[in-house]
Amino acid sequence: MSAATITVLPGDGVGPEVTAQALAVLRAVEETYGHRFTVHKRRVGLDAIAAEGVAISDSTFEICGQSDAILFGAIGSLPPGADRGVGPRPEEALFRLRKEFGFFANLRPVRPFEALYGASSLKPEHLKGADLLFVRELSAGLYYGRLESVPGKPSEIRRAPHGTEAVDTLLYTEEEIERVVRAAFEIALLRERKVTSVDKANVLSSSVLWREVVERVAAEHPTVTYEHMLVDACAMRLIRTPSEFDVVVTENLFGDILTDEASMLTGSIGMLPSASLGTRRTAGGTFGLYEPIHGSAPDIAGRDRANPVGAVLSGALLLRHSLGLTREAAAVEEAVEAVIGEGLRTPDLAEPGSTVVGTREMGRRITDRVRSASA
Ligand code: NAD
Ligand code: IPM
Ligand code: MN
What we know:
Blueprint: E1 3-11, H1 15-33, E2 36-41, H2 46-52, H3 58-65, E3 69-74, H4 91-100, E4 105-110, H5 124-127, E5 132-137, E6 155-160, E7 163-168, H6 174-189, E8 194-199, H7 205-219, E9 225-230, H8 231-240, E10 247-250, H9 252-262, E11 275-281, E12 286-290, H10 309-321, H11 326-341, E13 344-345, E14 355-356, H12 359-373
Parallel strand pairs: 1-2, 1-3, 3-12, 5-10, 8-9, 8-10, 13-14
Antiparallel strand pairs: 4-5, 4-11, 6-7, 11-12
Helix pairs in contact: 1-10, 1-12, 6-7, 8-9, 10-11, 11-12
The chain binds nicotinamide-adenine-dinucleotide, 3-isopropylmalic acid (IPM) and manganese (II) ion.
3-isopropylmalic acid binds next to helix 4.
């Protein structure tokens, strides 16, 4: 029996809808396998800005820090065209959590289920054998650049004598690159032992340094094969021959974009989970933040239409990486695959012959499966 504390940050838009299902699945695991999960639910994003004036309050942040893991939904819903003005932005919550907790490695597994080959925009023959793990650098790069004029500020729009200009800075230290590249090589040892490092070394200095570091770390891992790939070519190859990839490591913004693209291999962005990890240990593993890769999806929010699978699979990653509950994590993943194998689909994955259900029903079926599988 394991005892663990989980802070749940449902957030905005579809965030609360999918998180409720992920939490129900975790509760089923708790009961079925005899664990004890203490859950603290807190506001984050627009929800927190409205109630507390900031995207994440200090007290919420503190509770997160006292937990074994954070389960995050999504933030940032505004009706289309609405102006955010100059106030706090919901995304600031994510930036703070990632930076201050040192979550530098964002794992985004992409493994299309065979039963969903028909729902993907790729032909089935291209999906066969695809099983990728993105390791996205998460706490540096363009998201956290440094302006010489305003230390700590990553970007600005400014009035210059020749007109208005905007600046974003892309800065990586050797240490920031090395820790995430090292994580990728270590994970590759547990998989197919292949790393693709993605950069833009034909243009960016940060990518030239990135390649140097990859060479050095690769030399310490002689059993792992590796390659460098330019990001534009990678974007193409991902949908030409996805099965050629195993572990893909890349900087923050490239990883953000490539994983939304890669989600289409699985049929929907609603399918992809993620784990954001640093170095702090918990009783069972590593302290981490777990969230689906999608956003608050304002276009479908509040209509029981969101696919909860990315959130549920994020819960499985939480069990595995932060709580050390490997068997339970696998049980959740198997439950998801079984329910999808039965033809159950949320509207984003609807195909002829499938049974289309809402977010809640999809979650309920996965939860039932977790309970019955252990019986
Ligand atoms: P989005 O991911 O919210 O939505 C993109 C498209 O995918 C939409 O058509 C949406 O309906 C669909 N979609 C997303 N999740 C789905 C799900 N679970 N099931 C079915 N369909 C789903 O991206 P966006 O519209 O570009 O951004 C909306 C807001 O979300 C923005 O404010 C953005 O900053 C924020 N965002 C937050 C996160 C996060 O919380 N980690 C991630 C991405 C975007
Ligand atoms: C993600 C999101 C965030 C990012 C946004 C909301 C800041 O797109 O988690 O993938 O770009 O990292
Ligand atoms: Mn993204």
